[in-house]
Amino acid sequence: MSEHVLIERGGAVLTIRLHRPEKKNALTRAMYRAMAEALEAAAGEEAVRAVGLAGGADFTAGNDIADFADATARSPEEPGAGFLFLEALAAFPKPVLAAVRGHAVGIGTTLLLHCDVVVVAETARLMTPFTRLALVPEGGSSLLLAQRVGPARASWWLLSGEPFSGRAAAEAGLATCAVDDAEVEAEAARRAATLAALPPGALRDSKRLIRAPQAAALQAAMAAERACFGERLRSPEAQAAFAAFLKRPA
Fold it and tell me: What would the mean pLDDT of 112-119 be, rounded to a whole number?
């Protein structure tokens, strides 16, 4: 496990909490692996009936850019830890809830598409700045975001990388609800407790049925994104963008 990923238990709810506040919870390969391992363990633990994803003042600033810049040192065939986490999240059979405050950048936004409940602060700042880093969408967002918020809005968010608020995310249908910042964790906990109290078999089957109609299309979209993302990650265009980002003042 990573020191920057905390596992908390509250009754039948397990919370995976990102804890790297000095970097706004920017995600490293070790953090992705820790989250994927926690999901794998929770899937097989009967006492866990729901899983929460949370941060602190910030949900996550997205992938650590230093990890992206180091991509050329790794084999092109090596699957990125972020993609392995996303696949584990997409396949997770139990309810997943997200409590989003502050920044939710890149994968911090796209992972929400795989959550069953998303409670977001009205003032949260979400964005998918893939093109700004010379990259492409991931996490199935090229398919799922348009289904969730409509093609026009999804195209703008994914192509422009412009930020949008938690209130806008809820109004568009990306989030379940938007509340005051101070109420995010409590509201997510309330909804998690509601789901955890329901018959677990019925929840599993219901989640499976809800997602089944697009399972094959999602798998294909995620595979295509992963292949293109890997190519873009190693491109001179992307490496120049990473270098420029890392030279910015802290």
Answer: 98
